[in-house]
Design a protein that fits this description.
five-stranded mixed beta sheet; 140 residues
Amino acid sequence: MTFRIEKLRPIQTWKQVQWQLPLYGTIKVNTDGSYIKESGKSGIGGIIKDGNGDCIIDFSMPVICDSNNMAEALAAKFGGKWCNQLGFTNFALELDSTVIVNMINQRGTKNMKLKMVVERNLKVIHNASATVQHCYRENK
């Protein structure tokens, strides 16, 4: 009896995404969160750019959380809060997580683990003239 062993490889697809300027007088905040279940490690990062595409500030740091959605929500909260602290009141917050974007835009969630972070995001957005939208990962 002969056995055949095959290595399966995922099919990779690529899509080019270009950075789009925010509306005049608006800055753009692009955040991302990551969680690796096997190691328990997580982190957040983001970049704030002006209307010319110039970097105002960026950040990257480890966080403590237990899911990718929580990491995404924490990244959005950090980026929005930082804008408020820097005095920016008109910004577009972009996330690549449609789950978190929907929770924020629908003004809440029933997920008790995410509820507090989503509500803090709503408070940050309420204190500013901010929009929250989904985007594909951009070249920074």
